[in-house]
Every structure is written in structure tokens, then in C-alpha cells.
Amino acid sequence: xxxxxRDAEARLFAAGIGSARVDAELVLAHVLAVPRTALLTATAxxxxxxxxxxxxxxxxxxxxxxxxxxxxxxxxxxxxxxxxGVFIPRPETExxxxxxxxxxxxxxxxVDLCAGSGAIGLAVLDERPGTRVIAxxxxxxxxxxxxxxxxxxxxxxxxxxxxxxxxxxxxYGEADVVLSNPPYVPEGVTVDPEVRADPPDAxxxxxxxxxxxxxxxxxxxxxxxxxxxxxxxxxxxxxDLAPLILATDGRWRDVxxxxxxxxxxxxxxxxxxxxxxxxx
Length: 280
Ligand SMILES: C[S@@+](CC[C@H](N)C(=O)[O-])C[C@H]1O[C@@H](n2cnc3c(N)ncnc32)[C@H](O)[C@@H]1O
What we know:
The protein starts with a helix and ends in an 8-residue tail after the last strand. 39% of the residues are buried. The protein is built from ten helices and nine strands. Strands 5-4-3-6-7-9-8 form a seven-stranded mixed sheet, with helices on both faces. It has a two-stranded antiparallel ribbon with strand order 1-2. The mean pLDDT is 95. The chain is 35% helix and 20% strand. A hairpin with a 2-residue loop joins strand 1 and strand 2. The chain is α/β, with parallel strands linked by helices. The site of S-adenosylmethionine (SAM) has 24 residues, from helix 6, strand 4 and helix 8.
């Protein structure tokens, strides 16, 4: 068993995968349907499982995302179903959930704009049961994954476009928290091969990466009541621009940029202020 893992690690390392050992172990654990820790004591493997493992390692060596191979992606305490058509949730986005949990009061209403697999909204629900969480997504290929992850939860899925000025009209001024991880990578930026497995319109947002940001800010300003809280993930190249866009919008106070665990600027928070420029 250990030699299989070592061979797979070498194959994945040669393919340029930094997390070769972990990926080899996670693929094998998936094949054997055991937790990764069980591999420490496992000794025997059937020929069928060894063949299946070799096949999946080859797929991973061809830079298919690990999450597509095993069919799930971890996000905080959840394992979300993912596959072609939906954005794979990233660890840095877990910080948006922390930001929300810091301000959430019992019975609050939260809107997750650009929800993808539902990672953000579902994590909020999981960690603050009783919250009302509405997840908005427009991608026809992403929606079935979102609905699948939302099944048997209280997550409210809304098919909608964040650029639609009438989106969630009935909720205007009622939401307590808006969270969003919209597409934000500038087109033309070189991304890892695995990122090419994400739907392009989940990743890229025009030449400057800002194509969706004004719409997200506008929808959040309409949805939140005065004092409501926004946390917005963005590209690290938008460290100054994202706070500037919020600060100059006129509807926000306490605008603050935040870094992720690697020290890169990752998200901006703001509080809905009294002033409203929407009629100008
Ligand atoms: C970066 S992904 C984030 C997904 C999820 N929130 C997460 O953090 O894992 C951006 C998501 O926004 C969706 N999206 C892109 N443009 C949109 C739009 N105009 N309206 C609503 N959703 C949109 C994409 O389909 C994709 O699911």
C-alpha cells in the first residue's frame, strides 16, 4: 500500500502538483472509501482498487482537479458536491464566513450573491442554524450543483443575475448581511491548469476583473438595511480599488480591506450607511 502511495506521489510531483503526497492519499482514500487517516494502518488492496487508483492518479496527473475526481470539495465543516459546471470553493473564501459570523445576530437574513456550489451560504447555515440564507446564482450549469447541495437544508436558492436591478426586490432594505465571492480574475491572467476546469464566467470578469463588482455593490446597497454588513472577496490586485469603489459610492461606512492567511489582500468589508445616492 505504501509503495503505491509513493509511486503516485512521484507521478503527481512530476506532473507539477505541489501537494502530490496529500493528493495521492486523498485519491486512494476515495477509492477505498475510507478516511485518509485509515491509510496509515491499511495493508492490503484488491487488484480492482489498485487499477482504479492508477486510473484516477493519471487523471490527476493530467491536472484534472482533485475535487472533480473525488466529487466533493471541503469547505469549513462541509463536504460540497462539485464537478464540471460549478466553481470549486477555495479555502480563502472561508474567511468571508468568519467575517459574517462575527456580526450575525440570531434570526438574521443573509444573502449570498454569486453562490456557485452554495459554499458560503451553506456554511453560514451550518454554523448559525436559524439564520435565513438566500443564495443567488445565474449559471445554468452551476444551479443544479447548488440545488443538490441545498437539498435537505434551509438554503433558499434563487436563480438570478446580480446585474438585474430588480433582483430580490421584495427584500430591499431588509437584509442584515450580504456576502459575495463574485468572478474577479482579470482576463488574460495566467491561471493554474486546475482553474481552467472552473466555468470561465465563474472566474474571469473582464479585462480588469471588475466587471461584476459595481453590480454586486449596488445590489448589496439596495438589499441591506442601514447598519447592514457587506463582505466582498476580490482579486489581490484590487486591494486599493475595491475599498475605493465602496468608499466613493456614498452608501457605505467603515470600509476596511482584509488579508487572507497568506497575507494577500483578499476581501473588503463595509457597513451600509444612512446616505443614499441611488436616486442621483
Ligand atoms: C468565483 S465563483 C464563487 C462561487 C461561490 N460563491 C464560492 O465562493 O465558492 C462566482 C460565481 O458567480 C456566478 N456568477 C457569475 N456572474 C454572475 C451574475 N451576473 N449573476 C449571478 N451569478 C453570477 C458564477 O456562475 C459562479 O458560480
